[in-house]
Amino acid sequence: MKKFLPLLEVLAICAALVLLALMPSVLSSPAGPDDPDEPLQPSGPSQSTVPTDPDEQAGPSEPSEPSEPADSTDSTEPTEPTEPTEPTDPVKPSQPTAPEEMTALLTEAGYELSDIGGSQLIIVKSTGNEAEICAYDLNEDLVWSKLAPTASGFVGRNGVSRDKREGDKKSPAGLFPLPSAFGNQPDPGCKLPYRQSTKNSYWVDDPNSRFYNQWVEDDGNRDWKSAEHISAVGRAYNYAAVIGYNLDPIVPGAGSAIFLHIGSSPTAGCVALPEDRLMEILLWLDPEKSPEILIY
Fold it and tell me: Which of left, alpha, beta for 90 (phi over 0: left; psi -120 to 50: alpha)?
């Protein structure tokens, strides 16, 4: 036993030295819940371990300067108001357009819209010796429109023919110009050239006369055997428009004295309609618009 005592002493000394070496780290570690020897600190808000500048320690804060109210208006320079743009004109059609009624009448007569050379058109649709008469006007936008409601009228006693002959009591069928107006009464304000008749005014219907289908003032040197004495016709010729049938060139015997005039019954070859409707048309006709009449 004495033999082992020095060895045990050595081991005890070593253990003591180890404990002494460990003691500083144990003593320097913070106490926690697992350390039975250190009393627990009451819970509360944590304190900062960083020292603060005395000037920055907590205290009553200085009132802040009130901020400037925001400007509700835009800070940018006001812009000049833009000029309103002018409305653009609608694109005009390249070809004339017409109401269905007009197109249907032209088709029925064997014509197309492109056959109309002027911008005023009278259409005379016959049934026997009676007729329906319409007037159409072409405006600057190339649109045809109806001038007034359809008027009732009359054509030749024997109807309408494309082979008109002198004395057949038929109205000529086709598309003709309306070059002038005339009457037993003074000019009512026509745009067409107007000629007032005299007691010597005649329209020659003798195919053998050099004045066939022409207005003449009788001076006593007649070469005709037959002519209409205009002033003697009376009310029917108070106002009238010349229908340009067989005028250029004049064909002897092809028919003469074809007019648009006042009337309430079938004619010898003219187109007749009530005076109020005739006057409406007569004052509307304008030579600058190359008026035409279509009879069928």
Answer: beta
| pLDDT tens per residue, range 271-289 | 999 999 999 999 999 999 9
Which DSSP symbol is given to 207? T
pLDDT tens digits, one per residue of 71-130: 544 545 556 666 666 666 666 668 999 999 999 999 999 999 999 999 999 999 999 999
Residue type, 152: S
Q: Are 123 and 235 in contact (CB under 8 A)?
A: no
Q: List the chain domain ranges.
A: 100-295
In 3D, which of 153, 253, 243 has the Cα closest to residue 192? 243
pTM exceeds 0.85, yes or no: no
Cα 209 to Cα 8, 62, 244: the distances in Å are 178, 127, 19
Angle (CA) 158 291 285, round 5°: 100
d(CA 68, CA 92) in angstroms, rounded, equals: 61
Q: In degrees rounded to 5, what are phi and psi of residue 242? A: -80, 125
Kindly state the tokens that stand for 295: 């009879």
